[in-house]
Amino acid sequence: MDFKTLPRMIDISCVKTDSTFEEMYKMVDIAKKNKLICCFAMPYYTRWLVEQLKDAPDTFVGGTAGFPHGNELTENKVNSAVIQKKLGCAEIDMVQNVTALKHGDYDEVAADIAAVKAAIGDTPLKVILEVGYLSDYEICKGAEIAVRSGASFVKTGTGWSGKPSTVEHIKLIRSAIGDSARIKAAGGVRDLETVLAMIDAGCSRFGIGVNSVISILKEAGIYVE
Fold first, then answer.
1. Which residue among 85, 117, 141, 155 is the active-site one?
2. Which one from 93, 112, 126, 141 is the annotated catalytic residue?
3. What is the pLDDT of residues 39-89, one digit of tens each?
4. Alpha-carbon distance 184 to 11, whole Å?
5. How far apart are CA 14 and CA 194, in angstroms?
6. Given phi > 0 = left and psi -120 to 50 = alpha, else beta, which region is 164?
7. Is 184 a known active-site residue?
8. Residue 117 appears among annotated catalytic residues
9. Which of 170, 222, 196, 206 is nearest to 62 (CA)?
10. Is the peptide bond before 68 cis (omega within 30 degrees of 0)?
């Protein structure tokens, strides 16, 4: 692939509990200089992040809902998504109800996603499966439900499970949803080899932490200091 297109596939993120403003400033600087497509932080930082990127037309802000566990009330997810959209988020990444999926309560999983999608309208919704907690069947089922309920993207994980997303996860999701939605990989994507293999498997967006973004762009020979 033409590595110059890679920054338009990267959502750079600072979404850990202990992420600091120092890290946030570093993320913003990298995003602006390298024209990354999106920045993600926890909702506490959203207003600040939108302000920091108001002069960066190439980079928008994404919001999170139900992050990182997914098992909170649907009303909370809806409220968080709506507030962050009003603050300026151009996309919303929500975590599906992992417990409901594993329990086989598929109607609840679908209703949870559909409610958020209805609330944010035409804003793209990425639904996070958290593949590290799921069987292959559950991954496919969750992906199918997500797309049927309005997801523009099926996303592998939050990065919080401690289990990395893999190329096999991408292949599994693609086998379940075909071309009906795009796939975003997040969690454990730390080198260019993995990124390229995931692209070949059908992935088109990546959620990557600050240090790994630097490393990957340097491997590709396109990092701007």
1. 155
2. 93
3. 999 999 999 999 999 999 999 999 999 999 999 999 999 999 999 999 999
4. 9
5. 20
6. beta
7. yes
8. no
9. 206
10. yes
